[in-house]
Amino acid sequence: MKELSLHILDVAQNSTNAQATEIRIEILEDLFANVFRITISDNGCGISEERLNAITNPFTTSRTTRRVGLGLPLLQAAAEQCNGTMTIESAEEQGTTVRATFEHDHIDRQPLGDIVSTLIGLMTGHPAIDFVYHHQVNDRGFTLRTQDIKQELDDMPISDMSVVNFLTEYIQENIHSLYEEANV
């Protein structure tokens, strides 16, 4: 994967497959501490301890269509390549948290990429799931909750093009504002 937003998409898709009703995606960019951290948590079915111990093995997958699962091993490799780590915390029937930490300025750290399209795809592709997106750059943060948006929409679907256009612009503007305020 060439950008971190694709790793986020992969892990979030795992959450949708785990019957999560809420998925939190958090990005922390602490330029002073030189940390770039991605946290994805859900309230899905969780992972057994046995499976959790083998989950970063590429030949461990819950898929029935193929016998390899490269998503988490690739994220782990990307983090470790940038002097970082990846951790997975999970309990059956309680959900899962995947956290990947990178050196922010490491030359091999993949760019965040098109996080806006990733978020829009997740939100419109899984309208029954409540997504919470939080992006923080230094001490400034931006949070988006699809549950709040859905309440304002009444009966209009989140996949309606006018809503998609609004959300795209809203997310872009807020992320741009975070970087602008941090002088990045």
Automatic annotation (TrEMBL):
Keyword Nucleotide-binding: yes
SMART domains for the chain: HATPase_c
PROSITE patterns from the UniProt entry: HIS_KIN (PS50109)
InterPro entries recorded: HATPase_C_sf, HATPase_dom, His_kinase_dom
GO molecular function: ATP binding
PANTHER family given in the database record: SENSOR HISTIDINE KINASE, SPORULATION KINASE A
Protein name, per record: ATP-binding protein
